[in-house]
Amino acid sequence: MHVGHIISGFGHLIIASWLFLGNIFYSDKIEIDYIYAEIEAYSEQEYLAMLSRDNEPDVDSSVQTLELPEPSSDDVKPSPTKRDEQLETSAPDSPAVPSLI
């Protein structure tokens, strides 16, 4: 046999034994804290009784109408800014439309 096969086999044997035996000689055991959930079991009759209850919320039938505030003269039309004036005066030139004849 080749020396490489022996070294490879020995290395695989060590890795496989470590995977299977792992922490067999390790003394500190990890304690797992379990979380328990409390559940309740209902019979079919109890479940149907819960479904048949009137579970609809109480709705207030009185509706209040909202009144909009009257707009003031300041709210109707805002004053133009300097940027708006620049945009209005610097319109691009439109290209000439060629005739289709």
List descriptors.
101 residues, mainly alpha, 4 helices, 0% strand, flat
Note down, in words, how this protein is organized.
The chain has 101 residues and is mainly α. 40% of the residues lie in helices and 0% in strands. The protein contains 4 helices and no strands. The protein is flat. The mean pLDDT is 78.
Order of helices and strands: HHHH
Question: Strand content of the residues, in percent?
Answer: under 5%
Number of strands: 0
Radius of gyration: 42 Å
Query: In which range does the helix fraction lie?
Result: 25-40%
**Tally of contiguous helical segments:** 4
Biggest pleated sheet = none
* Low-confidence regions: none
From the spread of the alpha carbons, the general shape counts as flat
Average pLDDT taken over every residue:
78
Distance between the termini: 95 Å
Assembly annotation:
single chain
SS-derived structural category = mainly alpha
What does this entry show, briefly?
This protein is an all-alpha fold and 101 residues long.
